[in-house]
Design brief:
With 82 residues, this protein is mainly α. The chain is built from four helices and two strands, in the order ααββαα. The chain has a single domain (3-81), classed as Rossmann fold (3-Layer(aba) Sandwich).
């Protein structure tokens, strides 16, 4: 069974959101590569931590759960993190 089979197996029959699916993948595959951008390589664990840090920053700035935030970035790993 590969990673996508495992994640989609988890998803089928549930009402999982994309962030829940990612959290599931990050927990099961924390040391595996999740993202490669030019010379930057992030594991699931690193990507999960960076996205959590960014979410916490947004909360500190007053963005509430369900709030909309625009993203203006070139294609890069920070775009995926955000």
């Amino acid at each position: 069974m590969n990673l996508s089979d495992d994640v989609f197996g988890y998803w089928r029959g549930s009402h999982a959101t994309i962030d829940q699916l990612f959290a599931y993948s990050a927990k099961k595959n924390h040391r595996k590569t999740a993202l490669v951008d030019r010379n930057k390589r992030l594991t699931y664990e690193q990507l999960d931590k960076l996205s959590d840090d960014y979410a916490n920053y947004l909360f500190e700035c007053g963005i509430t759960e369900g709030g909309v935030v625009g993203i203006y970035l070139d294609r890069c790993y920070q775009y995926i993190v955000s």
